[in-house]
């Protein structure tokens, strides 16, 4: 147990350090003086001096990094240049929307991708399989914004079943019912990823079904459903679980588009606006948090892999 | 008693892979099935098991176990109908066990199906039967923690959990090293005797057959070309193909280093010659061999060869 966990965690921390250096360096890669870039042309010398001081730009580079990283470790990501409020607060405002959006999307991906993939595999070669695989191909190839716009056209503008944009917090009036604002965006975001998981589940099931040990299982005389669930599915899920980490990475970038299409007050929108405003501390903060999340999720995937696959221990 | 009568196995919309194969296996008897690669040995055994892959079917003949027709039944259907059982072990012990389940789980799964009332000690008992030392500990192991020989023993234990009348072993020792191979062969012989179980033992290795089997069937291009008890077959093969195979065996006495081979290659399904399928490679073949049905030639005891011009050795004076 322990050695594997320690090694995986150590690797994640090393990655985080490397990523943080890149994120830190980003502000110094801006051509010209970052302070002028951030403040724009109309800045007064006092404002420039104040920002310079606040960012610690006069310290040696290594010191600057250590101070920045040290602050980040304590949860201080600096102050937004546009809002003049702590970056963590700016991010926190979009966090509820983004976290809920990602979670609901993940639920769709698992709920649709895995069972439908199993169905397609069991019915391999039939019309059901061909229909589902064709649909998956289509869903995987359509751009998220396009799917989003069509969902709005049909289910919001046309049928009026769901709201087309915005998201009031579940802590405000309406409570959990406000989640209906996230149905269409999460479906748009889930579509291409669920399609990928579907195809992966199907392919992986068919691969495993050809293994010798599946023939052994059948030879025992156990029921076919049990062969599928206990022997084929269990092994096929190994490949699917390891794909969830990558799915998450895809979600992050596609979420920016989705939040824009559905006008959701999430972190994706914060990022887009911060880039337009050249609010570098906020951009840095969002990227750092995203990297952390990504590493944590992949660590969880790796560790849960151990419980699914006893062979991992030896490697 | 397992009896296979005129079995035909074909690829759907394709050639026949097994053609008109008949043999019997009595309880406590080991039948060795030999033949070149691709001659249809595995297809025959999977057909007996009811485990042919989709797209390959039994298109003729019957498989009976103690009189009950089990021809088209898959293993779980045989369990449901409570008819006789055939169990099987495979060539690759490395890939024949599910890598994510403990030995105990894989063994108990078979026990639960065939012996629902057996207690938890049954799994241990089975491992003891196949001579796995420290059975209690090995039950909790995963397949990757065991050696090839141990895994093949586990496979045998799983097969025995099905309480089979007949055990099919498809090249069970090809992937094992020589000493382990001998142990596993010894174990199969012993279980066959003590459990009074019929065994169909498939191999390329005539040496193993000579040691282990009671009777032999020789397969060529999907057909049996000769069936006999081990003694007569090795002493005086009737079919020129069997004769050729035996000539390929190294003979330590003559110290002959030059390897004999049968000229040519075995035909592939779908491109099998008319008449006797061996005729193009046979040095005794004549015009009659190349078309029409081939008669059976009988030798002493129960020896039968499908041949126009069987090899008749001069009886030693
Ligand atoms: N799915 C398939 N479709 C068509 N032909 C097949 C298929 N699987 C096997 N065959 C053919 O069936 C023939 C018999 O194969 P089989 O596996 O029974 O041979 P074998 O005697 O067991 O050979 P080996 O000693 O190599 O195991 C081979 O010629 C093979 O090419
Ligand atoms: Mg074979």
From TrEMBL, chain A:
Residues of the ABC transmembrane type-1 domain: 95-301
The keyword Cell membrane belongs to this UniProt entry's keyword annotation: yes
Keyword Transmembrane helix belongs to the record: yes
Membrane topology value: Multi-pass membrane protein
Location, primary (coarse class): membrane
Spans through the membrane: 12-30, 99-122, 134-162, 182-200, 232-252, 282-301
Gene Ontology CC entries for this record: plasma membrane
GO BP terms: transmembrane transport
Keywords assigned by UniProt, alphabetized: Cell membrane, Membrane, Transmembrane, Transmembrane helix, Transport
Signal peptide per UniProt: none
Subcellular location: Cell membrane
Similarity section: Belongs to the binding-protein-dependent transport system permease family.
Protein name from the UniProt record: ABC transporter permease
Species, as recorded: Psychromarinibacter sediminicola
Lineage, highest ranks first: Bacteria, Pseudomonadati, Pseudomonadota, Alphaproteobacteria, Rhodobacterales
TrEMBL record, chain B:
Membrane topology: Peripheral membrane protein
Gene Ontology CC terms: plasma membrane
Keywords: ATP-binding, Cell membrane, Membrane, Nucleotide-binding, Transport
One function term, GO molecular function aspect: ATP hydrolysis activity
Pfam families from the UniProt entry: ABC_tran (PF00005), oligo_HPY (PF08352)
Compartments it resides in: Cell inner membrane
Main subcellular location of this protein, as a coarse class: membrane
SMART domains xrefs: AAA
GO process terms (BP): peptide transport; transmembrane transport
Domain ABC transporter: start-end pairs: 2-246
NCBIfam families: oligo_HPY
PANTHER family reported for this sequence: DIPEPTIDE TRANSPORT ATP-BINDING PROTEIN DPPD, OLIGOPEPTIDE TRANSPORT ATP-BINDING PROTEIN APPD
UniProt family annotation: Belongs to the ABC transporter superfamily.
Name of protein: ABC transporter ATP-binding protein
């Amino acid at each position: 147990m322990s050695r594997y966990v320690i090694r995986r965690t150590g690797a994640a921390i090393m990655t985080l350090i490397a990523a943080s250096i890149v994120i830190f360096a980003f502000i110094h890669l801006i051509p010209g003086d970052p302070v002028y870039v951030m403040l724009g042309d109309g800045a007064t010398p006092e404002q420039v001096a104040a920002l310079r001081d606040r960012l610690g730009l006069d310290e040696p580079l290594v010191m600057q990094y250590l101070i920045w990283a040290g602050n980040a470790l304590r949860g201080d990501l600096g102050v937004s240049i546009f809002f003049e409020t702590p970056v963590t607060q700016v991010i926190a405002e979009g966090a509820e929307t983004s976290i809920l959006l990602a979670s609901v999307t993940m639920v769709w991906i698992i709920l649709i991708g895995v069972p439908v993939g199993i169905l397609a595999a069991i019915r391999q070669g039939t019309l059901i399989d061909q229909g589902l695989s064709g649909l998956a191909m289509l869903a995987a190839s359509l751009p998220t914004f396009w799917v989003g716009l069509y969902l709005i056209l049909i289910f919001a503008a046309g049928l009026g079943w769901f709201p087309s944009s915005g998201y009031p917090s579940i802590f405000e009036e309406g409570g959990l019912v406000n989640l209906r604002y996230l149905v269409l965006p999460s479906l748009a975001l889930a579509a291409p990823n669920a399609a990928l998981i579907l195809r992966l589940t199907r392919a992986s099931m068919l691969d495993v079904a050809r293994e010798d040990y599946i023939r052994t299982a059948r030879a025992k005389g156990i029921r076919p459903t049990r062969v599928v669930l206990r022997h084929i599915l269990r092994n096929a899920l190994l490949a699917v679980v390891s794909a969830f980490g990558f799915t998450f990475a895809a979600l992050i970038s596609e979420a920016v588009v989705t939040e824009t299409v559905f006008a959701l007050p999430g972190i994706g929108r914060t990022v887009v606006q911060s880039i337009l405003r050249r609010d570098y501390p906020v951009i840095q903060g969002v990227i750092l948090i995203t990297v952390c999340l990504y590493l944590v999720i992949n660590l969880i995937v790796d560790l849960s892999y151990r419980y699914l696959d006893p062979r991992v221990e030896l490697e | 008693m397992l009896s296979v009568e005129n079995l035909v196995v074909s690829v759907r919309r394709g050639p026949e892979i097994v053609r008109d194969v008949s043999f019997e296996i009595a309880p406590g008897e080991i039948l060795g099935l030999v033949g070149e690669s691709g001659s249809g040995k595995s297809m025959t055994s999977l057909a007996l098991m009811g485990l042919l892959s989709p797209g390959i079917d039994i298109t003729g003949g019957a498989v009976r176990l103690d009189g009950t027709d089990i021809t088209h039944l898959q293993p779980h259907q045989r369990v449901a109908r409570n008819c006789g059982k055939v169990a099987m072990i495979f060539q690759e012990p490395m890939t024949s066990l599910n890598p994510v389940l403990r030995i105990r789980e894989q063994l108990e799964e078979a026990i639960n199906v065939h012996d629902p009332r057996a207690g938890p000690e049954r799994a241990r008992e089975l491992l003891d039967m196949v001579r796995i030392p420290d059975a209690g500990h090995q039950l909790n192991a995963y397949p990757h923690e065991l050696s090839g020989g141990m895994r093949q023993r586990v496979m045998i234990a799983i097969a025995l959990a099905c309480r089979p009348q007949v055990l099919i072993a498809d090249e069970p020792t090809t992937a094992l090293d020589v000493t382990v191979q001998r142990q596993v062969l010894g174990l199969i012989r012993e279980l066959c005797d003590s459990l009074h179980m019929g065994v169909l033992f498939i191999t390329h290795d005539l040496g193993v057959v000579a040691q282990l089997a009671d009777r032999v069937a020789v397969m060529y291009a999907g057909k049996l070309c000769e069936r006999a008890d081990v003694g007569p077959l090795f002493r005086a093969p009737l079919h020129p193909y069997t004769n050729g195979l035996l000539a390929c065996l190294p003979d330590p006495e003559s110290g002959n280093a030059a390897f004999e081979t049968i000229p040519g290659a075995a035909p592939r399904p779908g491109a099998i010659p008319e008449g006797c399928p061996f005729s193009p490679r046979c040095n005794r073949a004549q015009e009659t061999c190349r078309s029409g049905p081939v008669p059976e030639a009988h030798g002493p005891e129960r020896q039968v060869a499908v041949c126009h011009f069987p090899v008749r050795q001069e009886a030693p004076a």
